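Q: My labmate handed me this sequence with no annotations at all. I'd like to see what the chain might look like in three dimensions before we decide whether it's worth expressing. Could you predict it?
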Amino acid sequence: MSTLTLHRTHRRSWELTDGATPRGTLHAGRGLVRAEATTTEGSWALRSQGNRRCRIVAGPAGATAVELEPPLARLAGRDAPAHWSVGRGLRHYRGVLTDGDREISARTVSGRAGTIRVEVAGVPSDLLVVTVCFALLSRRHQDRMRALWIAAITSHGPR
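A: Here is what I predict for the chain of 159 residues:
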């Protein structure tokens, strides 16, 4: 099992590293609805969809290679669906993608803005690892925005 880290490099950019070795980048658009993942394997366009941003669609331009929507994940070239779970704990988000002998377990690090620690079993694609990380970042962003909206709606302003 190997450990990777996705850490923030700029406001909307992250880098996937294996210790000190860079393995890929993630460049997100405004609101973490769309992003582009780039590794040595290529580049994928990522989109988060759905009310709570639980559905992630990823793949090269004009094609879908991965679709993450709990409790299943559809991976291109695989007959059977994989298992995908995403959840929220106290001050962290966690996502686990299991496909046969491959498993990607990602968890946000509390107190460190935009950092995700990823445990990888088997030999999954780095693009798939970045996609799982994007799913957590997008979900966390949506939940934070929802909390701000609720606070703004329920507050009555200064008296």
